[in-house]
Predict the structure of Galactokinase.
Amino acid sequence: MTAATQGTDPATTTWLDAWTRQEGAERATRAFVAAFGREPDGVWSAPGRVNLIGEHTDYNGGLCLPTALPHRTYVAFARRDDDAVRLASAQRPGDLWTASLGEIGPGTVDGWGAYPAGVAWALADRDGDGDRDRTRDGTPSGFDAAVDSCVPFGAGLSSSAALECAVAVALDDAWGLGLAADRRPELTRACMRAENEVVGAPTGGLDQSASLLCTPGHALLLDFAPDTPDDAFARPRTFEPEALGLTLLVIDTRAEHSLADGQYAERRRTCEDAARRLGVRTLREITPEGLDDALEALADVARRRVRHVVTEVARVEEFVAAADLAGSDQARTSDERATVGARLGALMAASHASLRDDYEVSCAELDTAVEAATAAGAVGARMTGGGFGGSAIALVPRGTEQAVADAVAQAFVDRGHGAPAFLLAPPSGPADRDV
Ligand code: ADP
Ligand code: MG
């Protein structure tokens, strides 16, 4: 046994299971009754997300390809007649967050309640004139909400967007806004404003778009090119790993690195400087054919960063093309399906190498997860999210999930990392009402 020969303890493998929608709704309802002593009007929920490929491309005007997790954040919600906003969370026991709707805005609130409260602020004043917009149901008023969630926190799986988007669809119903039916990009923008302006986290729109727009059985191709209109920004694309005999496994490394924020800002700055030097609005405009010429005009570090961005956008396009093929009758035989699976896996491996070597945003735990999963039979694996910790993903042959997870957990023990956790991630549905 590996453990015995290396003198380390055997690993235990922790699975983070998704709740059923009913279980989630019941938990949030119980939290609501306990916090506020009355029944909620209903329960709304929204998923965390995982990005299949297309990393550090959103702020370069590029492409990303997230799917929604079956893991969701549930919000039991009831309107109030006055202006009070009261928030409880099972993940923050005893910490009842309160404010008045009128006082919420950039710089006026903090703590975890800033995420949901920020969404209320952004949705109450959609035209941005500082007055509350009227709706078909009257003027927005205060509310009580209780949260419970099975999306892991701070694991790069977007618990923050899941919280924002669950509150957004609840408020959309409560205030009669009617945006969830066919104007979801407007809800996306409100959630982004909440996170950027009220919480103060400079994230792109990837997380909120995924949580509001992903559909079951699909990945979402997001196009961040500056002039993309709303109706072309997000396109569902077939992604059915089970049709290829594969399962998407998520490895939460549980590693957190304090450098992450400064490093993120520095990568952004390097890319923006390189775009200026190359005379383009965003690096999206550099094509694979034009890459060599562009690289000659740049110094060493910028050269590697730009090479990652340009090749990563091309990998997203190739991944989407291969995944489409999986759903077509060109992949009828098991040999043909294996070829498609191998292609997806090779693109994931190339993405990881590029993020590790050219973009330099991986870390020891992420590299261990990718190497151990691949050695245990994954067709491909890569870090996902911003990097410096968070999660990795692996496409593994169906039926090998436990064996791959055990091998990764053991590799973490052998290399002295803290224990990781594992999630299964069939592409799932968007933010919606539960009961
Ligand atoms: P990620 O989105 O990758 O999980 P973030 O740092 O962006 O990590 O967001 C995590 C923060 O979002 C938490 O620290 C907390 O403030 C807030 N949050 C997310 N989910 C909940 C929840 N269920 N209850 C309370 N706060 C939450
Ligand atoms: Mg987040």
Remarks:
- Residues 73, 89, 91-92, 112, 115, 147, 149, 153-160, 163 surround adenosine-5'-diphosphate (ligand 1) (CB under 6 Å).
- The longest strand covers residues 66-79.
- Confidence is low (pLDDT under 50) at residues 1-6.
- Residues 14-129+138-239 form a domain with the Ribosomal Protein S5; domain 2 fold (CATH 3.30.230.10).
